[in-house]
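Task card 7
Instruction: Convert sequence to structure tokens.
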Amino acid sequence: MMLLLLLSIPAMASGLISLSRKRRVMEWIHASASVGALIVGGVLAVGIRDGAPVSSWDILRADALSAFMIMIVAFVGAVAGIYAIGYTRLEFDDGHIARVRLFYALFQLFVFTMLLAVTTDNLGVMWVAIEGTTLATVFLVNIHDNHTGLEAAYKYLIISSVGIALAFMGTVLMYYAATAQVGEIGLSWTSLIGIAARLDPKIVKLAFVFILIGYGTKAGLAPMHTWLPDAHSEAPAPISALMSGVLLNVGLYALMRFKAVTDITHAGLFERRAHRDHSAWIGLRWVLGYAWRAVPYGESRAGQIHALFAFRQHPAQVPHHGDSRRAWFDESGAMDRICLSLRNSRSAGFAAIRSVHQRVHHFPRQFCGAFCCLCGDRYRSAHLGFRGNARKRESHVVWASIGGTGVR
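Output:
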């Protein structure tokens, strides 16, 4: 019942906000849902830590990994949700009440889809939930209804849709591998992990290639990561915080679930063979990425390629989004390092333990979402430079102090 309660809070809040007409009612529902999801998520996570996994309706299931992800989603969602109230008061006046309603409703829908993705036992439902995160956020990226926002939303929608289509193909292939061995079992992850050793290694390997590219797109892995800087810089600051601190982790969570099945099927053979090539590719990407960012700008072909691949944007085109654009490629690099850690592990169990340990070790990075709030405050202030901001905007000091705990 706790899983149903956790999911019902943001889902019902999104529906009630859509029916509301008064701004204060929307804010009250939004704040209550954000705090309520955090409380229920905390109680659920503590219960899972002290006992067995929790399940409901044969579709929902939460184990220790799910509990950890629930806490990340609920915590960042609550912090960004509370901040969003003050943000929207300054960003949208009472004449834009429709946009305020859309923002709060989609915010809660975004949280709901991420919670569903990390609490479902059905791999098909997980795919639907992750696709739902795209549909919920694409309208938020263009909430200001301008040209740059529309361009960023279009790029985000196209690239994410291509990735999620590839993930769907991988899910279908994994389902085919299971039904070819034991007949109709559905898409239950617990059932699939139980028969993983009996699956056809060739089909599972092909399925994981599609899944790696597909869900890797949502996790911000190269080379499908080019949607990150535009979508983050155009989205409202609270949504950008959720996308940075939570959405990338949800994509990585889906990869970990499928990797556990793949490791058992191949008994570690696949990762030992591919380790050298994948490590070399990721290392080459880091070297080229940092070297590329060191090239100076200009009205040259190099500057145009910079903009094409979104490593940096010409200052004349986007004068106020440079801070966030540079930060999002640091997030992409962090996801590459975590996947390399998964790549080096020798078994499914050790892979999960090692990756979760790295997320715990880097948990202060979740506070990098606070820098999204800081960028939002800077953008709204009259003076965009750093000098004198501590005196003009006290909130800058607060958000910078919180975000600074996650920077090394």
